[in-house]
Amino acid sequence: MSIEPAVEPGPARTAFSGRSRAGRRFAVSLSAVLMTTAFTFLGLLAITFFIGRVVPIDPVLAVVGDRAPQAVYERVREEMGLDRPLFVQFFSYVGDVLSGNFGMSVTTQRPVLDDLMQVFPATLEMATLGIIIGVALGVPMGVIAASRQGSLTDQAIRVVGLLGYSMPAFWLGLVGLLVFYARLQWVAGPGRIDIFYDGLIPTATGLMLVDSLVAGDLDVFWNAVSHIVLPASILGFFSLAYIARMTRSFMLNQLGQEYVTTARVKGVSERAVIWRHAFRPIRVPLITVVGLSYAGLLEGSVMIETVFSWPGIGNYLTAALFNADMNAVLGATLVIGAVFIVINKVSDALYRVLDPRAQ
């Protein structure tokens, strides 16, 4: 009886096996992300549906008015499906949302989805510019404050952060308009663009700065910049306060570690110690900070949009609440919740890119 010698796996088979395992891990990870996203969105739908039922606002009265005959009230209530059992209403609501049907807005008499597609880019543009300002200034300020702990510079940066936490948004917006628009005339007034330029460029993305550059109309671009710079700077100031504070806290923790002391003993320059050694480990937690700040600007800019008459989702949501327009309220709430979900998932993906241990 002969015994066949064991065949060692070759390099090609080993490489194929490694790729296969990596592919399976990726598929499992992707499936988990999709499942958690689906369940999170389903929970969001359930919460918004529950809000729409417990808020003391009758959506039928918002449509027919409080002087409508009872027969008209009952007919509209039946057309809106509010006479059906609650669980049937919920599944119908989920089906409508997944098909893009958010209902009609009582205020604008248009589909809510069309309204949201018109107003959300304005909020997205202002919040994006605000978070860029917040990150560009807040991160260096936090690093400098930590590297000079206890100094006058550190105290000044901490005072700036405290002001960002304590100042009301509407008050700062009004003061900004009074100083920079009414007195100094450095910026344009409320609104997204002057009436003279309205409608001069085609709407491709809904982002005024992008569309004006794509159209090659620099007059519209600079007019849009003069309108957005003040509200975006105020939003950037609020995000700057939070980002600078958290960056300082993370950096102080890293600067107290032994590896930083070792680097200094070895003669590494202070600049390299701070940015190459201490700053790198805090990039991962900073992703969460920036992501939460960005999401907060997207959903929390109601006061700024009201003060500056900015035609964004915050202004739209406020008007819908005052007019008891529940379809618009729930649609805007869903969009804001979906933004949070997307930003969290993007943050998780960046975690895995910057920190392989999170795989």
UniProtKB/TrEMBL annotation:
Gene Ontology CC, one term: plasma membrane
Pfam families: BPD_transp_1, BPD_transp_1_N
This protein's record includes keyword Calcium: no
Compartment list: Cell membrane
Domain named ABC transmembrane type-1: residues: 120-347
Keywords linked to the UniProt accession: Cell membrane, Membrane, Transmembrane, Transmembrane helix, Transport
Primary location class: membrane
CDD domains from the UniProt entry: TM_PBP2
Membrane topology term: Multi-pass membrane protein
Top-rank taxon: Bacteria
Transmembrane segments: 26-51, 126-147, 159-182, 220-244, 284-304, 324-343
Gene3D superfamilies, per the entry: MetI-like
GO molecular function list: dipeptide transmembrane transporter activity
InterPro entries cross-referenced by the UniProt entry: BPD_transp_1_N (IPR045621), MetI-like (IPR000515), MetI-like_sf (IPR035906)
Family of this protein: Belongs to the binding-protein-dependent transport system permease family.
Name under which the protein is recorded: Binding-protein-dependent transport systems inner membrane component
